[in-house]
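User: I've been trying to design a sequence by hand for this structure and keep getting stuck. Would you show me what you'd pick, starting by listing the structure so we're on the same page?

Assistant: Good idea, let's start from the same input. This is the structure you sent:
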């Protein structure tokens, strides 16, 4: 049978007392300035999160338009068909009417110019390809080439992504540029 070793019974260790440990360092800021800064940062972060959420909800129409254009593009062999180009026009028309309802009745170069100016497109819809596109919508015998159809699909994607919308939510601390 084994016995447990006994602690040393040295006279040196007999009067030894346990030392008091210092208090743990707090992670909470000690001064008022850091606490105020922390509160301001949390409030700014919450405001930014609310802004991003509102912006995400607001841009739903862009995501839907991008999905509709992607569906049109997936039928690449039929991309230049009159029905595909009509669908593309409908997607852009509905999206533009969502941004500026007064455009809902336009089927002319004014609509193409609006598409160009609202997205700052230099080589845009108001071009021979755009005019041919408008002609193909009303005249069944007018057709688009594959290059023109691809150019219009690329422009449509670019416009949906980059057009400006005056109704877009703003940050609370930014003033309108008007």
């Amino acid at each position: 049978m084994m016995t447990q070793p006994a602690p040393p019974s040295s006279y040196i260790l007999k009067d030894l007392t346990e030392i008091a440990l210092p208090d743990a360092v707090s992670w909470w800021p000690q001064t008022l300035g850091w606490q105020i800064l922390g509160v301001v940062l949390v409030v700014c972060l919450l405001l930014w999160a609310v802004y991003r959420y509102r912006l995400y909800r607001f841009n739903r129409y862009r995501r839907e338009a991008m999905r509709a254009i992607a569906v049109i593009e997936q039928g690449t062999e039929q991309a230049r068909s009159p029905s595909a180009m009509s669908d593309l026009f409908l997607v852009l028309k509905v999206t533009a009417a969502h941004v500026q309802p007064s455009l809902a009745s336009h089927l002319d170069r004014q609509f193409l110019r609006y598409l160009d100016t609202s997205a700052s497109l230099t080589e845009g819809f108001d071009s021979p390809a755009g005019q041919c596109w408008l002609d193909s919508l009303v005249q069944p015998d007018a057709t688009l080439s594959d290059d023109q159809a691809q150019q219009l699909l690329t422009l449509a994607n670019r416009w949906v992504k980059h057009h400006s919308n005056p109704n877009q939510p703003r940050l609370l601390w930014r003033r309108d540029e008007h």
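That's my pick for every position. To get oriented when you compare it with your attempt: The chain has a mean pLDDT of 83. The CA atoms of residues 68 and 91 lie 7 Å apart.
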